[in-house]
Specification:
13 helices; globular; mainly alpha
């Protein structure tokens, strides 16, 4: 039975959409001065620390981390280290709004991956239509960079899409954590992934040779780590407990508009007509995948 959304829950969902949309906005500011891999490490390590403080040793977190560290490591790579690095590298050349639209294809890839790797989440006709619609939107977004000398290179557009595919694998792999308290999953994967990001940052970015970031970049790093990541996860799990996973997944539709609005207001970003068309198609695909409009139309009929 579908859980109903109260006015408070809708408000929290809108807040989460703004916060997660803000992660693309903050990243666009920070990545101008901080190399992507170093930014990944800072985001994950600060967020992990904040979550450990929030958990305060509850839920048997430390024995669990010791016992299942390999699983947390794999989840952390798929759900944090790899996608964050790809998105940040992409955002060195593309705006916050466009990156968020491309990354919003994650539920589409999740459905396709789950169809092949699980036995209980097979494609239905509605899922196929939703996936095809969303993938068409991705083609509309990426297409111009293939056929013309676009300001946004193809590789920068593809990286957020590959990050979305990684999120799809993470969503399927994460099923093995059923029964683990969600904040512990978040803290565990971020702890593990920050340990992966640290040596990569030291070897590739050599952060000691980088000039001290400006106050704006430091504030953006703290915001993306504490607000968009640590607090965002806590808020996400609160909404899920109150409204269920299906209702909470609607946040996917709210993230791109939030990132676009912030980029427009504070970074002077503009979207081309192809970007708007691609976003509309991806949004339509996500609505079809969600399925509630179809179910309600059938109930009315």
């Amino acid at each position: 039975m579908e859980q109903r959304m109260s006015a408070l829950t809708w408000g929290l969902l809108a807040l989460l959409g703004l916060i997660w949309g803000g992660s693309f906005f903050f990243a666009r500011i920070a990545v101008a001065e901080v190399p992507p891999l170093t930014l990944v490490f800072l985001r994950l390590s600060i967020a992990a620390l904040a979550l450990h403080i929030y958990i305060a040793g509850r839920f048997g977190i430390y024995p669990l981390l010791k016992r299942r560290w390999r699983e947390f490591l794999i989840l952390g790579i798929l759900n944090n280290a790899l996608p964050h690095a790809l998105i940040f590298f992409g955002q060195t050349r593309i705006g916050a709004g466009l990156a968020s639209i491309l990354n919003a294809t994650a539920p589409i890839w999740t459905v396709l991956i789950a169809n092949y790797l699980t036995s209980d989440e097979k494609l239905s006709s509605a899922k196929i239509i939703g996936c095809l619609t969303g993938l068409l939107g991705t083609v509309v977004l990426v297409g111009p960079s293939i056929t013309s000398s676009h300001d946004q290179p193809l590789w920068a557009l593809l990286l957020p899409v590959i990050a979305a595919v990684s999120y799809g694998f993470a969503a399927t792999y994460g099923k093995r954590f059923k029964g683990v308290v969600p904040p512990v999953i978040a803290a565990g994967q971020m702890t593990a992934s920050s340990l992966v990001a640290l040596p990569l940052s030291l070897i590739i970015d050599r952060p000691w040779a980088i000039a001290m970031p400006s106050i704006d970049s430091i504030a953006a790093i703290l915001a993306i780590a504490v607000l968009s990541t640590a607090f965002g996860y806590i808020l996400y799990f609160r909404i899920m407990a109150a409204a269920g996973a299906t209702n909470t997944s609607l946040v996917t539709l709210l993230v791109p508009p939030s990132a676009i609005l912030l980029g427009f207001l504070f970074l002077g970003e503009r979207l081309e007509m192809t970007d708007i068309a691609g976003m509309a198609l991806i949004g339509a695909g996500l609505v079809i995948l969600d399925g509630r409009l179809y179910r309600r139309s059938r109930a009315i009929a």
